[in-house]
Write a structure and sequence with these properties.
The protein is an alpha/beta fold. The protein has 22 helices and 10 strands. The strands form 2 sheets. Strands 1, 2, 3, 6, 7, 8, 9 and 10 form an 8-stranded mixed sheet that branches. The chain has a two-stranded antiparallel ribbon with strand order 4-5.
Length: 471
């Protein structure tokens, strides 16, 4: 069932046409409803056995010959049932299905759309029931993954990975962050990682050099302040932070020594202090005002008065397609670039945060080998090329894949932006933990309190330490 990797030239030509249509907030995954059963591989053998036990030898022989011919024509037909979400608004579901089926004649992939709003809850309910027929399921987030693993509904993939000779290092180390008691239950196929978007016109107008791919937080803060203008009617914000906790708090996990599961969050203090001081000095918009106004990060950056904004790589496709369609004014934000995340002193440049989307084989599947072959293909080079061709970032990124994305119409032509498509270390925003969802809720609550100035940084962090400690 193994086939040659999809031609890079073919995918690159597909990319230009597909990419322009794949705008939209987070580009989350999608799905479709279908129902069919796999054709039997052993029909001829079964018929032959029946013939031996049956007196109607001639009729049985004819039936056996017909069945054998049908089996030869079908090529050992297999139907895999795959759980996804938002099929109609996510371009890569169909692209992955069609790519795999083309590479593996005789295999049909049937997608079932469980919707995005309550996907993880619905999936857990489906897999916990006795009637589940899914072979492959998409893992949307870590809390959902933790639930499925705890319910023993996913198949451990360790032996499959070993037999296939898969090099897990190609995923940037995220496999270790979703390993449960020494076993891995998913392989990532999509990765959204954080970069810094910047407006080149704002830099040019201020006579300031562009940011680089090796920038400490001190240099980043200094640069943001240089670009800030508080002049009425021509105000420029040197930086912008969306209201998500991840936009501020997760600067602290880039050293690889801390994570949001630590239970002690004193390491977050310098990053909260930096952003709050920037607010005080009008280097960035006020968090309370952003929350009250409901200003989306895309609206903030496309308005042309933001010099730098940290955001996920999913915004690349949105930015390009909306500039091309005219939804964003190209004169305000059309001259843009990206660089790698800033880092603390002593931390390797290119360290960043990410969120992965993975695939898993269900424990209930009766065709686990075929299901894993699909998982392996989607999360490997073939699937990565398809993902890149739809303007989305695969979990597996190499020079060839980065080249597809960088070669798309509308992507910045400077070398720094192209180099920013790779990273040295990738740390999950939320690694695996049984109580990951509870920890996430606690940190969200006190992030809100700190940024709204309801609590001091010290008070908020102390509350995080205390509440997570109780878990």
């Amino acid at each position: 069932m193994k086939k040659k990797v999809v031609s890079m030239l073919l995918v690159a030509s597909m990319a230009a046409s597909l990419f322009a249509g794949c705008g939209g907030g987070s580009n989350e995954p999608a799905a479709d409803d279908s129902a069919a059963d796999a054709a039997a591989d052993d029909a001829a053998d079964d018929t032959a056995d029946d013939a031996a036990a049956d007196d109607a030898a001639d009729d049985t022989a004819d039936d056996t010959a017909d069945d054998a011919a049908a089996d030869d024509a079908s090529g050992d037909a297999v139907t895999l049932k795959w759980a996804i979400w938002d099929k109609d608004t996510t371009p890569y579901w169909d692209a992955l299905k069609e790519g795999y089926e083309a590479a593996n004649p005789g295999v049909t992939v049937e997608m079932t759309d469980l919707g995005s709003t309550d996907y993880s809850t619905v999936l857990a309910t489906e897999l916990s029931g006795s009637g589940s027929e899914f072979d492959v399921v998409t893992i949307k987030d870590v809390p959902g993954y933790a639930t499925l693993v705890s319910k023993n509904t996913l198949e451990p993939l360790d032996s499959y990975i070993s037999d296939a000779g898969i090099d897990l290092s190609q995923y940037g180390g995220v496999d270790s962050q979703v390993t449960v008691d020494g076993s891995l239950y998913e392989l990532p196929f999509r990765n959204d990682f954080w970069v810094v978007f910047y407006n080149k016109d704002v830099f040019d107008n201020a006579g300031v050099d562009y940011p680089t791919n090796d920038m400490t937080f001190d240099e980043y803060d200094e640069l943001a302040r240089k670009l800030t203008s508080t002049d009425f009617g021509s105000q420029v914000y040197g930086a912008h932070y969306h209201t998500w906790r991840s936009a501020v708090q997760l600067f602290g996990v880039l050293d690889g020594e801390h994570s949001v599961l630590d239970g002690n969050y004193d390491f977050l203090k310098p990053y909260y202090e930096m952003v709050l001081k920037q607010e005080d000095d009008q280097v960035c918009r006020n968090y309370a005002d952003l929350s009250a106004e409901g200003l989306h990060y895309s609206a903030a950056f496309s308005s042309g008065d933001v010099a730098m904004m940290n955001m996920g790589s999913w915004f690349i496709s949105t930015l390009i397609s909306n500039i091309q369609s005219g939804e964003y004014d190209a004169s305000l934000c059309g001259n843009w670039g990206i660089v790698k995340y800033p880092h603390a002193d002593g931390v390797e440049a290119g360290s960043t945060l990410g969120t992965i989307t993975g695939l898993a084989v269900t424990s209930a599947s009766t065709q686990k080998d075929a299901a894993f072959d699909f998982v392996k293909w989607v999360s490997g080079e073939e699937g990565a090329a398809v993902m890149a061709g739809t303007g989305n970032f695969p979990a597996l990124v190499n020079d060839e894949i980065s080249g597809i994305i960088a070669g798309m119409e509308g992507f910045p032509e400077d070398e720094n932006s192209k180099e920013a498509l790779s990273y040295s270390n990738l740390y999950l925003e939320l690694p695996y933990a049984e109580n990951a969802s509870e920890i996430n809720d606690i940190l969200d609550t006190y992030h809100l309190s700190i940024m709204n100035r309801e609590m001091t940084v010290d008070e908020g962090i102390a509350a995080m330490n205390d509440e997570v400690g109780k878990l």
